[in-house]
Amino acid sequence: MKRITHLGLAVLLTAGIACAAPKASQTFTGKISDSMCGLKHMMPGGDKTCTQSCIKEGSKYVLADEAHNKVYQLSDQKAAAQYPGEAVKVTGSLKGDTIQVSSIEPAK
Q1: What domains lie within the chain, and their CATH numbers?
Q2: What is the radius of gyration, based on Cα positions, of the chain?
Q3: Coil, helix or strand for 107?
Q4: pLDDT digits 0-9 by tens, 3-42
């Protein structure tokens, strides 16, 4: 009986460690947008102007992935601020709908 209990605890411990391990880094592509507009900008002047205006009003930078119709929150707002309205490649791990950003660079 003790042997089964020890085996069960070992399995649970291993599963717990696997769940707690950080998720692998992924690459996401899209445009740096704002949390108010997301996938579609409404202001005249283009994506960059709209994004900058919405950020000034309190929105946060997001990654708008039009190919998958998805908007991701970004953990690193300073890095995103370099690319408002631009196509980018974001590397990081996904936790819920937030990318824990490792890097952001222009898409090629």
Answers
A1: 23-106 (2.40.50)
A2: 19
A3: coil
A4: 555 555 555 555 554 455 556 899 999 999 999 999 999 8
The string of pLDDT tens digits covering residues 31-71 is 999 999 999 998 889 999 999 999 999 999 999 999 999 99
Find tokens 């196509």 and name the residue: 87
> Would you list the DSSP string of 37-65?
TTT---STTHHHHHHHHHHHTT--EEEEE
What are the DSSP E strand ranges found in 1-97? 26-34, 61-65, 70-74, 87-95
Count of Cβ atoms closer than 10 Å to residue 49 Cβ: 14
Q: Are 27 and 99 in contact (CB under 8 A)?
A: no
Q: Cα-flanking dihedrals φ and ψ of residue 75, to 5°?
A: -75, -25
Question: Secondary structure of the chain: what % helix, strand, coil (to 5)?
Answer: 35, 35, 30
What residue has token string 């995103």? 80
pTM over cut 0.70: yes
**Residue 11's Cα: distance from chain center in Å?**
32
